[in-house]
Fold this sequence. Notes:
The structure holds two protein chains of two kinds. By secondary structure, chain A is α+β, with helices and mostly antiparallel strands. Chain A is built from 13 helices and 14 strands. In chain A, helix 2 (about 20-60) runs antiparallel to helix 9 (about 260-295) and helix 2 packs across helix 11. Chain B has a six-stranded mixed beta sheet, with helices on both faces. Chain B has a four-stranded antiparallel beta sheet with strand order 2-1-4-5, covered by helices on one side.
Amino acid sequence: MRTDKRIPFFLILRHLRRANKWTLALIIFLLAIAFINLIFINSLFNGVIESNNQQIIAFRTGNISMSPARGQEYVAEPLHTVARIEEVPGVEAAAAETEVPGNLEFKGAKGDYSVTAIDPVSEKKVTDVSMKMVEGSYLQPEDRDGIIIGAEIAGEKDNGARHLSFTGARVGDRLTLVLDGGKRDFTIRGVFKTKSNEADDRTFVTRAALEGVAPELAGTASDIIIKTDSTGNEKEVVARLEAAGVRGTFFTWQQAAEGLKILTDSFVTINTLLTVVGFFIAAVTIFIIIYVDITHRRQEIGILRAVGVKSSLVVSTYVLQGAIYSFGGVLLGTALYFGIIFPYFRAYPFQIPIGDVTLSVNPGDFVFRALTVVAVAVLSALIPAIIATRKSILDDILGR
Amino acid sequence: MPDPEDVIVVDSIDRTYQLGEVEVRALKGVSLTVRRGDFMVVTGRNGSGKSTLLHQLGLLDRPTAGKILLNGRDVTVMHERDRNHLRLTDLGYIFQEFALIAELTAIENVMLPSMMLEKTGACRERARRLLAAVELRGQADHLPSQLSGGEQQKVAIARALMNDPAVIFADEPTANLDLVSAREVLDIFHMLNKVADHTIVMVTHESDETVYGNRLMTLSDGKIIDEN
């Protein structure tokens, strides 16, 4: 290594050691804020999309849902089919559901709600509704006149969760289920609240209870919900199910999420727009911080040139300084983000109609944004440093 | 054939500045020769062009016309990279305002130019010797803000000497110093010239400082009006 290559490191180490600590801290803090601004918005929208996907998997379709094969109205022999599916590698559990359109009546109020018949034991293995009971308890397998309803249907006494709710149906209350001519009273065993409006608009009874109202549905299922051993391998599992001869129409959760594509596309668009604005603001902020710092040190640049330090080394010094500042900003921003902001929003998530939304960091996005901050800082240092070294030495020293 | 004893030959240089719409001719056809071992004192009133002349000789600025030969090489048409190298190896410059880097200690300021050429250990050792020579042995690790004006100027002198330059330029080096410090600095220049045989070009407007040089040049309105 040529000896002169030490000059930038020599100068920067001394600058970091002896410069005004408050000024240095303020510069790094501002860079950290600019970095956090870049990752926060992105993480928030990632969180919205991830929350939506989690809600679909946990409360609606599992990883894969199987509908009847083309031309079939129901999945025949559901218990046998569930057993076959559970033997396929990659499948953790499966459960049959029979969803039928129905009408619920409660104290004079009526509402059109679908009712889903389940086997509570196997259902617990594929969805998380059982873990979201806010009142009462989940269904028991032998329960023949119990029903659990979502919070959107139960509503609240003073302020209905929505205008069609039962505005305060409680555990122990009785409501009437009308199914295709059949009619039967059920006792509310529990109320669940997943915080997803769509999931909280559902009701569940046991398969035995449904057969009491509609005996013709005995031994049938409208869907089979499949939980895979890991999220992301759904296509492979579907291929294995088809290869194993399981007859049905398979939909992965990603396909189910297509129904909300308009929503997620909108979030992606908003995210992109805000990211572009965020990048611009961050770039301008970083540029101003570094530019002002270097402009204030033009006399130093002039002195270095006057004593014979090469212009390229002078430029390298300030570029390296910009890189170190930005690296410090990224490190501080990362520490603040994962030490304070991220845990805070884990503990106190945003509550929106599709469920609780926390921040979700995509490693690729994170690294890209960190590199962007460093690149902008380097560029912000490069420009004024080059300008300063192209000016007359006297102008630099005398600040002209 | 240039005389090898002629360190600097200035041939009819002009320096014109544009100040807004006004054109200022700071130097008008100045010619001079600095010979090895000279202690040339350049004097004149404020605005006479003496500092402008020193800036041209010290390669901090380029003349608008004419040429300057440094050890026989025309530096007026030289690429900035080469002029930079000459500033590093052949010239030492002492500014009126000391021009020290605030975040470097005295010894670090002194050793900085030679770090372009040598290993740190050797630089530090020579810087320490030079600081001792200007009686700043105990202040080597002080920052400029911890030194008096006279001490800062001594550090600047030590820095100018670091690469053993062919010529030392001093631009009103005592202007910001008290009488005692000014005398100490001038004594150092005298010693450098007489004992170490350094060539020195010093600008001053203090008439009593002219006695330190063996050549005196007086400028007025951008022209040499007196030389001996």
